[in-house]
Fold this sequence. Notes:
Elements: E1 2-7, H1 11-20, E2 28-33, H2 45-50, H3 62-66, E3 72-74, E4 78-82, E5 87-90, E6 95-97, E7 100-103, H4 111-117, H5 121-124, H6 131-144, E8 151-155, H7 159-171, E9 176-180, H8 192-204, E10 208-210, E11 214-218, E12 221-224
Parallel strand pairs: 1-2, 1-7, 2-3, 8-9, 9-10
Antiparallel strand pairs: 4-5, 5-6, 11-12
Amino acid sequence: xxxxxxxxxxxxxxxxxxxxxxxxxxxxxxxxxxxxxxxxxxxxxxxxxxxxxxxxxxxxxxxxxxxxxxxxxxxxxxxxxxxxxxxxxxxxxxxxxxxxxxxxxxxxxxxxxxxxxxxxxxxxxxxxxxxxxxxxxxxxxxxxxxxxxxxxxxxxxxxxxxxxxxxxxxxxxxxxxxxxxxxxxxxxxxxxxxxxxxxxxxxxxxxxxxxxxxxxxxxxxxxxxxx
Length: 227
């Protein structure tokens, strides 16, 4: 028997699981390592923040894909990969050998590196990744708006940052939303017509755009690259 180890429950692996449950591979033992029983569909997160969808609308229940299959699911995280020894180490200290390894994880932000770039970010910021942690905390943020108007700062002017800022402004119209786009315009990689639409949308949502980087995060304020 060959041992196929699948790391993560990203979209490609979800598609594989749906196929393998109906058409198992002969002579192959499969182990899935994924920490969350209901991974989040990344494209739906802004809809959850905006209030268009419930959390149940956006999760992928792993158990339904694995039911009736011979796939072994370990609800753990990977901490080490040894390609020479063909083995992985899990967060409980156990090791798992493999013949073939497939990696399809969701995005995870390196908090240690971000803390070096923006001191204070680990204590005072809400990380979007992993998505499962973010969507669990978002309802508590909404509850805070019932106590007082909030000021939101979204760091990152890519597509995800733009969508998130718009979603926050839609869900919480009394909040102040600022988008820090770094040294580039929001949607800078898109054609000029698309950039113009993005700019107009931000204006319509009353979202302030600051083309600077955040260099430190404190309680209630950001320090920007321009001082």
